Each structure stands twice: as C-alpha cells, then as structure tokens.
Amino acid sequence: MTIADIKSNTQTKMDQSIAAFKNNLTKIRTGRASPALLDTIHVEYYGNNVPLSQVANVALIDARTISVQPWEKGMGAKIEKAIRESDLGLNPASMGDLIRVPMPPMSEERRKEMTKIVRSEGENAKIAVRNLRRDANEAIKRLVKDKEATEDDQKRSEADIQKSTDKHIAEIDALVASKEKDIMEV
Prior knowledge:
alpha+beta, Topoisomerase I, Chain A, domain 4, Gyrase A, domain 2, 4-stranded antiparallel β-sheet, 6 strands, elongated, RRF_sf, Ribosome_recyc_fac_dom, Ribosome_recyc_fac
C-alpha cells in the first residue's frame, strides 16, 4: 500500500463518518416533524420485526404532523402501538386507515436534553475521525520503517492528513451548531 492509497482510504472513511453522523442527526427530534423520525420504529409483520417504512407510507401532512398510511388493513393497530411504545414520546391518532402522528411541542428542558445528545453524537463523530487519522499516521510510519517511503514523505503526508482531519472536524462542528439551532428554535 502506498502513501497515496492510505490518504485516499482515510479521506473516504472520514467522509463516511460524516455521512453516518448526518444520518444520526436526522433521527434526533427537533420541533418540526420529519418522516425520518419514525425510521427507528419496527413493527411486527407476520412474526418478523420490520421497519415501519416497509409496511406503511410515511409522509408529512404539515410542519407538525406525520401521516402513516398502512399498506394492509390490519396493520393500523400494530403500527399505532409501535409508535406509542417507542421512546420518541409520540401519541398517534387513528383516522380510519390513516394514522396521524402530531409532534408535541418540546419543553425547554427537553430541548436542552436534545442538544446534549447532539453534542454527544458530534463528539463521537470527531473521535471516529481522529481514530482514522491515527490509523493513517501509523500506516505511514510502518511504510517509513519498512523503507518504502522517506521521512520527508511521512511529514508531508501527516500534514495532509491533519488538514483533512481539521476540515472534517470543522464540518462536524458546523452540523452540530446547525442542529442545535433547529432544536432551540421555538
């Protein structure tokens, strides 16, 4: 493996860490409704636990209401029960075949709890990026030790990897700040 391979692999893995962090952020509740909030909910379907999106159509009615339209008649009660029993604190209401999930307004205390969760997720993403930096630097040191690269190449590569790390950490900080702003908005 060459230094260029190590750098490109590290860059790709850091980008994947950012993508995973963004995905985690969509699941954290703000004051607005989002169909992604219900992605973590699983419903029993013929003896198997399947994601809600595989048994129903999830959409937004308005900024504070999610609609869940089951694809089969008998699934309404099971879906409603799964949403109610989730840790999201939602109270679905059935209207015939359609299930409406209104977003209750969040209290100030709950908003602060959510910002702590966002910061914690952000810190985990930063740790993942820093671990990738460490692994890349160790791989480059092994190349120098095995005389497959020079010490000058090592210094340049470590500086490039550090720049990439700084860029990704700045992006994580920006995502955290943006999500906190969304959460604290009333």
